[in-house]
Amino acid sequence: MSGIEFLGICKAMRGRMGVGRYRHCAGVARMAERLAVRHRSSPLKARLAGVLHDVARTWTGDALIAYADEHAMPITEDARRAPVLLHAAVGADIAKREYGIHDPDVLGAIVHHTVAGPNMSDLEKIVYMADTFEPSRAFEGREALEAAAFRSLDEGLLACLRESMKYLSSKRIAVAQETTQLYDDLVKRNAGTP
Fold it and tell me: What is the architecture of the domain spanning 3-190?
């Protein structure tokens, strides 16, 4: 993909979402690119997945379900209860259909940016983490998550999962089973403490 093509996608994204959401997507793209350079992944793929990851985030739950139904996309029970979870899979489908993105690494990173799970690729980890702590996210401990991610993908991912699980618990929202499994695997593999 050329720089001109990427700028065209950025322009299209700016036109389909509000300023705040676009600022977030641009921040995720920049952070993902930096993490990719640090961890020897593809900066271009990271930047592309980052800018496209929330293409469907502002859609209503009904619109996400309708799109998924129309395009014969599977809808889990979790997604039926919380349709916002569908924005990742719907976003990947839009990236493919509307923006001509067919790279499975980029599409996988878009699909997995919301619910982390076992066997994530490095690019999927990078976009997931960039979405968690890109600079427009303002919460206590953001900088520590970023520092951990620049030291090690697994250390950063573990720290981001802890933060996410703490947040979900405070809101009394169940953590996805695959996220809990990934967390437990990372704790065991890295001899960390929960």
Answer: Orthogonal Bundle (1.10)
Host H or E run for residue 57: none
Q: Are 49 and 123 in contact (CB under 8 A)?
A: yes
The rounded distance, in Å, linking the Cα atoms of 23 and 160 is: 21
Give the DSSP H or E segment for 138: none
List the structure tokens of 29: 């793209």
Segment 68-100, tens digit of pLDDT: 999 999 999 889 989 999 999 999 999 999 999
Taking alpha carbons only, the member of 69, 74, 85 closest to residue 168 is: 85
What pTM was computed for the model?
Answer: 0.94
Q: What is the pLDDT of residues 130-148, one digit of tens each?
A: 999 999 998 999 999 999 9
